[in-house]
Inverse folding.
């Protein structure tokens, strides 16, 4: 029921994923009459693999996490998480209220042993591919121990996505030892001593985009601002490029030829809008799609959930955390 | 003597500024023989307005601020700041080591009454013009009071640059009151009560680039990471655009036409590389040019210093701070 565009996009993305993946089964959780009406628009869909599960309430995009926890026992978000908890589904994907999804996930699924707080991670495009950036906003205040846990989780997630010996870095204002705030310096000490982790040191904001690390760790305040400012800048650049090509007749001619190429690029660059963000550290797989994600963004989020199921990510995380933390 | 390219670019930029501004006088501080040799390459320059002042030492780009303070009494940076302190020049522009410049500036010039720590500010391009972003890295840990002082200083700086009733915002992970860390929430309380300040509330990373505020305030950890990641992203996008246009013959033809337009845009977008960053809150005008600034970047930094001299920025700041803080 979530997202800035409601269930319409979600149904469309579901139908597309079902036809692309013959082994996929999807359960849509929400108001049955509305969902059935939307599904009816796709008569060719294989209903044996598309179930509707009822939930009478929905959490709005501006609701507080505390309200979501206490006020709505039958929200689509909570019901979906309960299905995951009860092993009736293998992962939950939501485009709804991020804070509420995190609070409900922690409440219904619980965190893995050794993890104080789940983190939100997404793949950010870089000059050399992608890096996993975390935390993206679930935790605004973090201790060194939290940053350490994020590093371990990010490393395991990158491995699951196919990176060998992922290079793990701490985001900082400089690369020298003396740089940074107290939490970052202490976290560096913890990471230097961690066995089995390819910790490469501090990284700066420009190093992230140069692709110097596969996993970049920061607190949720910094990560959220980095992610949103990057989206804002990419949007601004795209708008300026278009304006430039519309400026005069000669550039308009060039633009007519160049813009299709540039719009391809634009899609590549919108980080979390395009890819799902995962919640790491929970006893279950939860992927958050951007609230304003289009159909393609939702498909990417479902795709990310499928990879995490295939790789059994929570189990892998659990094993690694036992090695490193306990 | 500073910057990634040493004094060669600085001499070239100085010569260009002198010929553009007939009332400008410049003093180059550093090793006289080296500077004179470089100046000799420009026989047409008006030497009545271009002085060389000797300094036997230079601070390297990787030197610690504490070393710069204690170890080199005759560094070009320190000598230049002493000339400013003694009213023999009206502003200092440097492309050298940022941390050392800040430490020496505080030591030689002192802060204005009511200011605990100077902040570094630069103009960031947005969809609607520019916003003044501060702090950019001088202060990695900030209290609410520091953020409040930065807001006041940023507002006065924006006014000096021609903005009427600058819209001042606090950078945060959401725009609702409950969002953010403790410092940001407390700073919001202080700003809401400040008379004569056009405080508009919280702003997110994407709002910054949409141009929703004229002054955006954050701690130096966040500001530095935002600035550097933005530079990294802009560079990456430019590289991808070029790669896209080189990909095949058809796009290469389009690219040959489009790339000159795009390189114009690229110059507009590199924020601090292009514009000087000012130190605010000192008893004197100090402008920091990016270490890797080209000649044009250095000219922009000198230009920013000239505006601050014309507007008598430290004096204006002092007056406003007395009204608001004392």
């Amino acid at each position: 029921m979530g997202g800035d565009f409601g269930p319409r996009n979600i149904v469309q993305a579901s139908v597309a994923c079902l036809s692309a993946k013959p082994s996929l089964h999807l359960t849509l959780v929400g108001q049955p009459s509305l969902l059935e009406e939307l599904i009816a628009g796709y008569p060719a869909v294989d209903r044996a693999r598309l179930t509707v599960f009822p939930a009478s309430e929905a959490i709005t995009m501006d609701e507080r996490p505390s309200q979501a926890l206490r006020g709505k026992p039958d929200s689509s978000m909570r019901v979906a998480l309960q299905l995951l908890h009860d092993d009736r589904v293998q992962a939950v994907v939501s485009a709804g209220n991020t804070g509420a999804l995190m609070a409900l996930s922690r409440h219904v699924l619980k965190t893995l042993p050794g993890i104080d707080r789940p983190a939100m991670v997404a793949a950010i495009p870089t000059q050399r591919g992608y890096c996993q950036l975390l935390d993206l906003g679930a935790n605004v205040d973090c201790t060194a121990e939290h940053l350490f846990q994020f590093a371990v989780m990010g490393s395991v997630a990158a491995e699951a996505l196919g990176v060998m010996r992922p290079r793990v870095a701490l985001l900082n204002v400089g690369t020298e030892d003396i740089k940074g705030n107290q939490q970052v310096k202490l976290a560096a000490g913890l990471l230097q001593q961690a066995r089995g982790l390819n910790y490469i040191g501090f990284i700066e904001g420009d190093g992230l985009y140069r692709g110097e690390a596969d996993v970049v760790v920061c607190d949720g305040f910094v990560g959220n601002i980095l992610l949103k400012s990057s989206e804002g800048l990419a949007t601004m650049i795209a708008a300026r490029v278009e304006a430039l090509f519309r400026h005069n007749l000669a550039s308009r001619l060039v633009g007519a030829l160049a813009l299709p190429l540039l719009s391809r690029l634009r899609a590549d660059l919108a980080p979390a809008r395009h890819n799902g963000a995962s919640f790491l550290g929970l006893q279950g797989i939860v992927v958050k799609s951007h609230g304003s994600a289009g159909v393609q963004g939702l498909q990417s989020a479902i795709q990310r959930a499928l990879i995490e199921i295939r790789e059994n990510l929570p189990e892998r995380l659990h094993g690694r955390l036992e090695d490193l933390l306990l």
The two ends of chain A are 39 Å apart (CA to CA). The mean pLDDT of chain A is 89. The first strand of chain A starts at residue 26 and ends at 30.
